Amino acid sequence: MEHCSGNIPDEKEFARIKAEYMRSRREIAFLKPFFFDSLSAHYEETLAKLRHKAAGGEKIRAGFFVMHESVFPAKLLFEAMSLDPHFETEIILLNIYTDYYDYSQEQIREAYDTAYGELSKKYKNILKTWNPEDGSYVPLRGGEYDILCFESPYMHFTHPNYQLQSILNGPTLPVYVNYGYFVSAHILKTMETAYYNSFWKIFADSDIFMEELRLHGDLKGSNAVVTGYIRMDELADFRPEKRTRKRILLAPHHASIPNAFDREDANFYRYADFFLKLPESYPDIDFVFRPHPYAFKSFMVHKDWGRKRTEEYIARLKSYKNVIYSDGGEHLHLFPDTDGIIHDCGSFLCEYLFTGKPACYIMREKDAGNLGRYFNKLGTSCLEHCYHAFSEKDMESFIDNVIIGGRDPMEEKRLLFAEKHLKINWPFAARTALNVIKKELGIS
Questions:
Q1: What domains can you pick out in the chain, each with its CATH number?
Q2: What's the average model confidence in pLDDT over 277-282?
Q3: I need a labelling partner for 16 at 20 to 30 A (CA). Which of 51, 75, 176, 275 fits?
Q4: CA–CA distances in Å: residue 407 to residues 81, 132, 384, 400, 403
């Protein structure tokens, strides 16, 4: 696919950015004690100024970085802060800035326009940072925001104007909300980066996550507070519709764990034909098919698939009367309206447990005895409360015995685990995070 200069870096520029990033990491590793001491002093100085500002009746200006309308984990914090008279808020809309996915100029623009269109239906205060006509970016001026909320753990996904290092020297307090539950072992390396430890506040989603941060973070979690996962507050607002038929959520990922670790195809490729047979095998069950947003994009460039076969596959899915095809937007509303899930999506591993309903996670049998290689403690803990499928037969067994038959021996254990380790401050995690900020600012 053809890329347009100004939208994302070319290969040479991307290599330069990556080299600069690695150089910065090496320098910071050497200077870590001085770096974090200096940063802490800077935050204390900034906080004192903001306390003075708030005490004088001035509003605290907060910006929220958003890239996709369906991935806005701090949305309820943004909304709560927008309703609070002490704050002035704005969404800062970012475009895709990476060659990790093979996006064309048209796809980047379409994604950006879609995000703006959907967000603007509900919110007025949105800053467009990118001009697709000439590829230019709007710089964030120093002191423009008192608080900036980040959601991505990957610095290379955004333009340098909007990366953490661009605001560290300014009078701004950066806060971080995880864009999803992190269950992969890779997150342990992220926790060790200077980037992740440089936020003023990290709003941790669970006590298990906080435990990992204390073990692996340079600051041992001293810049974090367990608020619960803000995004999941919204689940409490959804009510299931009245229905008589069973409904199962099918959610295949484009880079399944553990497959992605070993650079192997996602499970979706292996079970694509099987998923097409399910609606025929179980005509009395409705299937909500919700692939990862990048799943069919990867199919279109896969050597064994391509655009034609992928489009035919999607058309076949949509042709079934008992298939509800969901290809974008918020996904949480799907959870209460299903009786169970079959998936291999990392964030769903935790999120679906909020419903109390049974989940079946697709894995390779060879990985069953070595999950610690691929999942962190939160991931392995959630997997212990899910049924596992290593084959088509296992998925059929889950449908026949658990969903249809109602034999769910893991139910009690699953409910207790979610209540103790996941539903922290639910559904008031956003309010909890806002209260943390207000307390620090001396706002009652």
A1: 11-229+426-441 (3.40.50.2000), 237-422 (3.40.50.2000)
A2: 98
A3: 176
A4: 44, 54, 17, 9, 8
